[in-house]
Amino acid sequence: MNNELIERYIYAVSKKLPRKIRTDVERELQTLIADMLDERCGEISPTERDVNVVLAELGKPSELAQQYHPAGSRSLIGPDYYNSYVSLLKIVLGSVTFALLMACVVLLLLEPSKSPIAKTGEWIFIIIQTCTYLFAVITLLFAFFERRGIKFDIADEDISSLPPVPAKEEKISRWEPILGIVGATLITIILLATPQLLGWVNQDGVRISIFDTVSIRSMWYVVLALAAISIVNETVRLLEGQRTKRVLTVTIIADVLSLPLVIWLFNSGFKLNPAFLEGIYDAMGTDTSIPATMLANANNILLGIVVICLIAGIGMNIFHMVKARQAE
Amino acid sequence: MDKNADEILSGLVLELRRGSIVLCVLSQLGSPTYGYNLVQSLSEKGIPVDANTLYPLLRRLEGQGLLQSSWEVEGPKPRKYYSTTKMGDEIYIRLRKVWADTVKNMNALWEDKKDEQ
């Protein structure tokens, strides 16, 4: 009898099994194959052909091993998550690629390079790299959800708690968050890669940027953190599709987190360029109606406007949340 | 067309069998039996089932607590004997009731159709 072939078959099955059931299944298969051969051959010693027929009857080792796995535990991202996974991938990769392409075109037009083809190649490389990275992060995130069985849609489990159909003003159009993601990516690229673009060229042909480019770049981690907060917030809005309590909560948290970061950024990195301020003085001449102190404090005024906008946003969202709670 | 119909039919038959095989297994395991013996006795009784389906199924039912098993090493070959647990017996009785009702109701469906014609 060809024992070796049987051993090889059993090994091929058992190596695909969870460790703790391997020995048990191996022993069981050994007896099963012996029984099947006995039935086939009776008293006569089985030939290699008999062994082949019996093993073929048991099927491919991988298929047999597959049968031993409990249903549903064999996929990285199962049917519960697949649709959300694919739509998130499409939107995030699509909008980031779009934003990077826009940045590429704008930069090539504004700052003609000596070798536009090489420059374009560099951008394509950046796009591929960024998309690969995002793909990996999103896939890992969903694989984690799958492993842990984390449910997005709690209402799905209990029909009576399904949310009401949103009124028209409650709905978030798909474009709103997509534009948000594109915008956040574009602003981040411009601030970090080419902050000098935010400015103009004066009569002497010198480019004067609004912000102090060196200090912005030195604060790259704060800029990236702000972009990440904004993209996560927009993604939640996109997935939810309506102004639910969860969306409001995430938006409030995002704004509250952004507030100290923005203040930090303005205090340490986001200085207006002195040359830019001088340019304004010159442009307006001496008989300006804008008080000089205002221009001198332009940095703080800008910070003030941003902070007021953020606080107003937080306040409005809290107001909506309280109103929604009262309506319940 | 015919080949396609045969394929669809065998797929449907497979699905029907898959659902009912648990009931067949539970019915036979009141006393301890080993896997291959079960394959043979079921096929003698007109319920053919492949060993590569039955063995993993026995293990799954054991995992769910419907079966218990023990190794018998006295004979010439070591064998794993399966039998129903108390919960397995209870589930068997309830599942059999569901089966009987389903068969009765389905028969009534065809009978109704016959009357209409």
Averaged pLDDT of chain B, please?
Answer: 91
Read across the widest sheet of chain A, the strand sequence of neighbours is 1-2
Low-confidence blocks of residues of chain A: none
- Rg measurement of chain A, Å: 31 Å
Number of helices of chain B: 4
SSE pattern of chain A = HHHHHHHEEHHHHHH
Largest interface: A-B, 21 and 18 residues
Give the mean pLDDT of chain A.
Answer: 80
Strands side by side in the biggest sheet of chain B: 1-3-2
Unreliable runs of chain B, pLDDT <50, ≥5 residues?
none
Give the overall shape of chain B: globular
Can you put this structure into words, describing what you see?
The complex is a heterodimer of chains A (328) and B (117). Chain A is mainly alpha-helical. Helix content of chain A is 70%, strand content 2%. Chain A folds into two domains: 1-70, no CATH class; 73-327, no CATH class. Chain A has helices at 3-14, 22-41, 48-58, 61-67, 79-110, 116-148, 175-193, 213-218, 220-240, 245-268, 274-284, 292-296, 298-327, and strands spanning 199-201, 207-209. In chain A, strand 1 (199-201) and strand 2 form a beta hairpin. The longest helix of chain A has 33 residues, at 116-148. Chain B has helices at residues 2-28, 35-44, 51-63, 86-116, and strands at 33-34, 67-72, 79-84. With 117 residues, chain B is mostly helical. Chain B is globular and about 65 Å long. In chain B, strands 1-3-2 form a three-stranded antiparallel β-sheet. Chain A binds chain B through residues 21, 24-25, 27-32, 34-36, 39, 57-59, 63-64, 67-68, 70, and chain B through 34-36, 40, 50-53, 55-56, 59-60, 63, 71, 77-80.
